[in-house]
């Protein structure tokens, strides 16, 4: 029976060294390496394989968490990301074969990262959106700056369609789909690369005259509560008279992103202003 | 202000902008080519604003204008819904014509509620649209009329 084997091993031995902290080198995983070799060497139907697999996954869990954290602040709940990263880790444990030479970490890191990336590509849409629309949304995203510059304003759906050689109907559909993606944080990466800067890093400070306007307005307490970056975008739009396209250019993100940020920030302000503190 | 046109059949005709004054059903029954009626529930506002954005995008508004209008409708509805009588309906009428879109959002209200125009919310509305106006001539209904031009004047 598997009873005596299953109860104790999943706990202490495997988790002790790795789970206690988060900032440790690869050394902390060394004790797991013999288990990896043993796991990979067992036939698929061996009951010991299941036990080893559990211990390995638990042992490497800090690695999955660490990778999930690299994708934090992109509008997806952290628990979901950790879960996806853990699925990636399980795949890595299942597919790893030591005889291929490379060590486990250099195999597991891209496998886990790939799983999280795939999650963002396929699943991080609040409603189900067909693949072709996601692709078209990306194409629109890259055409927008070019066309905006050429036209000196944001393009229309018709102009985008012509530029991308797609039908206007398709473009309209993709624009609608773009609104289903809830990418929202100013801490988002500027491009899909964890090493790139964050939006927050490239935002300048608010102009002095904008500060002036702010002081004349009754909203200042609510505005002051916003993160500085979001406040800047609101100030530029509603007090600086800039269009979304101009803000996008100045800040270095897409117009669609500015639009989502504004919508979200307005909702925050609305909630805050409808429930004002007593003076 | 524009002349009221109570008999609206033609899709391309302009929207009535002072609907409370025409005496034919008041603000509640303002006729427009497109109208969305939902329970006055904040959760339904995204559907209403999606209709606004879709109409503007199809009328070839540039994407800044589409996005501005979406936000303006969001703001207007969010201002009105909390004032609606219990169980009331949020009604939004849309008319696209002559390179502009007119939106009339309204809710049934008790005791002549009105909207302040010295608020940040109102500033948002006037920044996002070319014209924003409170419709409070009808004692039973309170509305906001928004107008957005296709090209910034």
What does this structure look like?
The complex is a heterodimer of chains A (279) and B (153). Chain A is mainly alpha-helical. Chain A contains 16 helices and no strands. Chain A has helices at residues 3-6, 12-19, 33-41, 47-59, 61-70, 78-95, 104-122, 131-151, 157-164, 168-178, 199-202, 208-216, 220-225, 228-238, 244-251, 255-273. In chain A, helix 3 runs antiparallel to helix 4 and helix 6 packs across helix 7 (104-122). Residues 1-26, 182-202 and 205-216 of chain A have low confidence and may be disordered. Chain B has helices at residues 45-58, 63-80, 120-128, and strands spanning 34-39, 89-97, 100-108, 131-135, 141-149. Chain B contains three helices and five strands; from the N terminus they run E-H-H-E-E-H-E-E. Chain B has one domain (34-149): Histidine kinase-like ATPase, C-terminal domain (Heat Shock Protein 90). The model of chain B is unreliable at 1-23 (pLDDT under 50). In chain B, strand 2 and strand 3 form a beta hairpin. Chain B is globular, with a radius of gyration of 14 Å. Chain B has 153 residues and is of the alpha+beta class. The interface between A and B is medium-sized, with 34 and 28 residues.
Find the CATH superfamily of chain B.
Histidine kinase-like ATPase, C-terminal domain
Mean pLDDT of chain A: 73
Structural class of chain B: alpha+beta
Number of strands of chain A: 0
Output the structural class of chain A.
Answer: mainly alpha
CATH topology of chain B: Heat Shock Protein 90
Query: What is the overall number of helices of chain B?
Result: 3
Mean pLDDT of chain B: 84
What is the largest interface, and how many residues per chain?
A: A-B, 34 and 28 residues
Specify the CATH class of chain B. Alpha Beta
Q: What distance lies between the first and last C-alpha atoms of chain A, to the nearest angstrom?
A: 70 Å
Instruction: Give the CA-based shape of chain B.
Output: globular
Unreliable runs of chain B, pLDDT <50, ≥5 residues?
A: 1-23
Radius of gyration of chain B: 14 Å
Question: How many H/I helices of chain A?
Answer: 16
SSE pattern of chain B, N- to C-terminal: EHHEEHEE
InterPro entries (chain B): HATPase_C_sf, HATPase_dom
Pfam families (chain B): HATPase_c_2
Protein name (chain B): Histidine kinase/HSP90-like ATPase domain-containing protein
Pfam families (chain A): Sigma70_r2, Sigma70_r3, Sigma70_r4
């Amino acid at each position: 029976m598997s009873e005596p084997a299953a109860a104790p091993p999943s706990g202490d031995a495997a988790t002790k060294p790795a789970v206690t902290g988060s900032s440790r080198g690869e050394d902390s995983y060394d004790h797991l390496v013999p288990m990896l070799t043993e796991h990979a060497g067992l036939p698929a139907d061996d009951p010991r394989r299941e036990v080893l697999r559990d211990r390995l996954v638990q042992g490497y869990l800090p690695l999955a968490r660490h990778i999930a954290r690299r994708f934090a602040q992109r509008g997806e709940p952290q628990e979901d990301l950790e879960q996806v990263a853990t699925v990636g880790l399980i795949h890595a444990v299942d597919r790893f074969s030591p005889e291929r030479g490379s060590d486990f970490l250099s195999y597991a890191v891209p496998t886990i990262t790939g799983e999280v990336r795939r999650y963002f590509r396929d699943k991080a849409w609040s409603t189900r959106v067909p693949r072709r629309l996601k692709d078209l949304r990306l194409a629109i995203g890259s055409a927008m700056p070019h066309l905006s510059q050429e036209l000196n304003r944001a393009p229309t759906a018709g102009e985008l369609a012509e530029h991308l050689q797609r039908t206007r109907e398709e473009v309209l559909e993709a624009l609608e789909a773009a609104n289903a993606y809830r990418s929202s944080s100013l801490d988002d990466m500027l491009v899909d690369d964890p090493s790139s800067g964050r939006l927050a890093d490239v935002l300048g400070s608010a102009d002095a005259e904008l500060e002036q306007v702010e002081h004349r307005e009754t909203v200042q307490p609510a505005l002051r509560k916003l993160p500085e970056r979001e406040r800047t975008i609101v100030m530029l739009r509603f007090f600086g008279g800039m269009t979304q396209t101009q803000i996008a250019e100045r800040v270095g993100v897409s117009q669609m992103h500015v639009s989502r940020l504004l919508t979200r920030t307005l909702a925050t302000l609305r909630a805050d202003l409808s429930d004002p503190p007593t003076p | 202000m524009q002349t009221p046109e109570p008999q609206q059949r033609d899709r391309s005709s302009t929207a009535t902008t002072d609907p409370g004054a025409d005496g034919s059903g008041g603000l509640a029954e303002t006729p427009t080519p497109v109208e969305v009626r939902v329970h006055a529930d904040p959760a339904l506002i995204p559907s209403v604003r999606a209709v606004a954005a879709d109409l503007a995008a199809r009328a070839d508004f540039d994407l800044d204008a589409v996005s501005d209008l979406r936000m303006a409708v969001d703001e207007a509805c969010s201002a009105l819904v909390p004032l609606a009588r219990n169980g009331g309906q949020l009604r939004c009428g849309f008319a696209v014509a002559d390179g502009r879109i007119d939106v009339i959002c309204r809710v049934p209200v008790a005791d002549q509620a009105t909207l302040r125009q010295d608020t940040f919310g109102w500033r948002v509305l006037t920044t996002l649209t070319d014209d924003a106006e409170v419709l409070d001539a009808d004692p039973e209904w309170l509305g906001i009329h928004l107008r957005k031009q296709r090209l910034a004047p």
